[in-house]
Write a structure and sequence with these properties.
The chain is mainly alpha-helical. The chain has 3 domains: 63 residues, no CATH class; 89 residues, no CATH class; 120 residues, Serine Threonine Protein Phosphatase 5, Tetratricopeptide repeat (Alpha Horseshoe), CATH 1.25.40. 68% of the residues lie in helices and 0% in strands. The chain has 13 helices and no strands. Helix 10 packs parallel to helix 12.
């Protein structure tokens, strides 16, 4: 396995953006970042590969140079914690993300729209993980309101993240048809995305929604495909989640790695110590 320490060459911003939100999510080792924005891209890419320890180090490497980026840093840390089941701790970071950009008055830039939307969607996901479904719904509505204004650039990412959480909320409420509806909305949004990681995550949400309407065989088949795609693109956390869904909907294909072994690999990469 290549060492993160072997990454000695300097990136262009487009290379790190492509690893974080484009077509090369499994690229490793990653080039070095030259500024705080690139450092954020780099940390997002590392976490998508399950390299949470390296991602946390990267996120601390350069202080954000504006409040919107600082808020995105906090939201990003929160998302890592949720991915390993630490919703209570994630809420502290999402709360900081909201505090940094504020919620009084209209957003003054597209960066502020993105940061506010991410923070509120993160808080909605935290509330969902703690069983506070009505609060989660309220926060999703406030997140949507941030994207309904003159500075909304039509970026697919904030709306897509909100659609994932809306689908997950419907699943937790036992609303299978609502889960499928929100998952289909996510898929439509993902059609405008260049990010393979986001496309794979959307397919995972769709597979989970199928299981909620009793389409167990289809859900299992879809989850198997997600696990293979995540493995092919080096997306260990998504591979782990898809594998758990496979195990809950009929089992693994021959040759697939069990979820417990994938979880152990995430731990080795720093997932259990993400903070």
């Amino acid at each position: 396995m290549p060492s993160e320490q072997s990454s000695l060459f300097t990136a262009t911003q487009s290379e790190l953006f492509d690893a974080a939100f484009g077509g090369s999510p499994g690229r490793f080792p990653l080039p070095a970042a030259a500024d705080p924005r690139e450092s954020w891209y780099r940390s997002v890419a590392l976490a998508g590969q399950g390299r949470y320890g390296a991602a946390a180090v990267e996120l601390r490497r350069r202080r954000p140079d504006n409040t919107e980026l600082a808020s995105l840093h906090a939201s990003t840390r929160a998302s890592w914690l949720r991915q390993v089941g630490k919703h209570e701790r994630a809420g502290h970071f999402d709360g900081r993300a909201v505090f940094l950009v504020g919620l009084t008055g209209p957003p003054e830039s597209s960066d502020a729209v993105e940061a506010r939307s991410d923070a509120l969607t993160g808080l909605a996901a935290d509330a969902l993980g703690r069983g506070r479904f009505d609060l989660s719904e309220t926060l999703l509505a406030r997140s949507a309101a941030q994207r309904d204004g003159p500075f909304d650039t039509g970026s697919w990412r904030p709306a897509l993240r909100a659609a994932w959480v809306a689908a997950e909320l419907a699943m937790m409420r036992g609303d299978g048809s609502g889960a499928v509806r929100h998952a289909e909305c996510a898929r439509a949004l993902a059609n405008d995305a260049d990010s393979l990681r986001h496309l794979v995550k959307t397919d995972l949400v769709c597979a989970a929604a199928l299981s909620c309407v009793g389409e167990i065989t289809r859900a299992n088949e879809a989850a198997v495909q997600v696990a293979y795609a995540a493995g092919m693109h080096g997306l260990l956390p998504l591979r782990w989640a898809a594998t758990m869904l496979c195990e809950g909907t009929g089992g693994l294909d021959a040759g697939m790695v069990a979820s417990v072994d994938l979880a152990a690999e995430i731990d080795r990469r720093g997932g259990s110590t993400t903070d």
